């Protein structure tokens, strides 16, 4: 159970970083 919870946190962190990176790209001012 703890292993699955940790794995879920890793996936959430990856998704958050991906969204944050995409958002920074979209809001980047040339």
From TrEMBL:
Identification of the protein by name: Glucose-1-phosphatase
InterPro entries to which the protein is assigned, alphabetical: HAD_sf (IPR023214), PGP-like_dom2 (IPR023198)
């Amino acid at each position: 159970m703890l292993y699955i919870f940790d794995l879920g946190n890793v996936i959430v962190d990856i998704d958050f970083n991906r969204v944050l990176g995409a958002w920074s790209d979209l809001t980047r001012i040339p």
